[in-house]
Amino acid sequence: MSKDAELKDLVKEKYGEIADQSPSQNLSSCCGSGCCSDGAYNIMADDYNNLEGYNPDADLGLGCGLPTAFAKIKEGDTVIDLGSGAGNDCFVARAATGNKGKVIGIDFTENMISKARENTEKLGYNNIEFRLGDIEQMPVSANVADVIVSNCVLNLAPNKSNVFKEIYRVLKPGAHFSISDIVLEGTLPEKLKEAAEMYAGCVAGAIQKQVYLELITSNGFKNIIVQKDKPIVVPDDILSSYLSPEQIETFKLSGTGIRSLTVYAEKPLAEKAACCGPDCCN
Fold this sequence. Notes:
This protein is of the alpha/beta class. The protein has one domain: Vaccinia Virus protein VP39 (Rossmann fold), CATH 3.40.50.150. A seven-stranded mixed sheet has the order 3-2-1-4-5-7-6, sandwiched between helices. Helix 1 runs parallel beside helix 5. The longest helix has 17 residues. The protein is globular, with a radius of gyration of 19 Å. The termini are far apart.
């Protein structure tokens, strides 16, 4: 099995465990099994309570931003949420796109898909669907989405460039994405990078901020805007699971930063057709 496949299996396992827990359990655990701290996953989460469409049953505390609040979703839009979990961002997106729009959630964890579908049935929505699939190979046709959102998911993907290629394929020409993700400034200690709990908690899969932004550019996107950039502070009780007191102090003084980034970018409009006759160009 390749390293990428092993990492994906790790994430599936960890998030499968989280999906089977109640929200209150998730908010008091750090690795999806109530094991060690105040929450390696939810230390990054932003508050959704004031967003229209928010449903507490779908909020597992796993995000690192509010991409749907920045996504410029209009009534009637088709919105796709990458790594949709229990449906939290899909329900917020649905409030913006309304009955005339459509929302598609994609997740590769079966337990999450089941939980999201249960939440949708409870709410009685008929224009939201959840599809089991890998965001590196989306189960969606090309040029169908007006907006793509994602919340703290791309950092878990081993091949982030493949994900951006897929986002480009699925967006309509002129359409856009707004994505919240974890990025780094500096180098994480190796023990943190290798730790399974930290990987599933979105930290060890993160790449350098500048590299992340360059990936967006190199995959053809234009009008790139950093909509929000906030620091993430990992509590000492979590760091102490992987680092000695001396290593924690060195880490804090190193200048290494873990940040939540919300980025907007557009797929360019299709190029104009070549001149075809005497009346269409000079």
